[in-house]
Write a structure and sequence with these properties.
By secondary structure, the protein is an all-alpha fold. It has one domain (about 5-125). The chain is built from 4 helices and no strands. The chain has helices spanning about 5-25, 35-65, 65-95, 100-125. Helix 1 (about 5-25) runs antiparallel to helix 2 (about 35-65), helix 2 packs antiparallel against helix 3 and helix 3 packs antiparallel against helix 4 (about 100-125). The protein starts with a helix and ends with a helix.
Amino acid sequence: MKPHHWISIAAINMITAVGAGAFGAHGLKSVLSADMLAIWQTAVQYQMVHALGLLGLSLLQAQWNERLLRYATWTMLSGIVIFSGSLYALALSGLRILGAITPVGGVAFLLSWAMLARCAYRRQH
């Protein structure tokens, strides 16, 4: 996928995160318990931070053109979908078993940041 496509995907994730945050603060405040609302807000926070990460990776792809950077971008998007998606579903459904999926997304985040670090290190040497 080309960098400009990834920039669009990052922007869509930011739009979604901002919308989900507003929806949680206003639309779900009276519907969800405090625990579930906190889970919702965690999903929003991680989606927003990693959407910015996705934007950064997209911009670097245009400059560096490295395969590992492309893998990092896909991995970060997977992390957003799995981590935040499972937390959104958990908050709305109350099914605690969905929390077992969340760490897979967290590992994807860690891997994507590690891949970026590796790319940056290789460029120095």
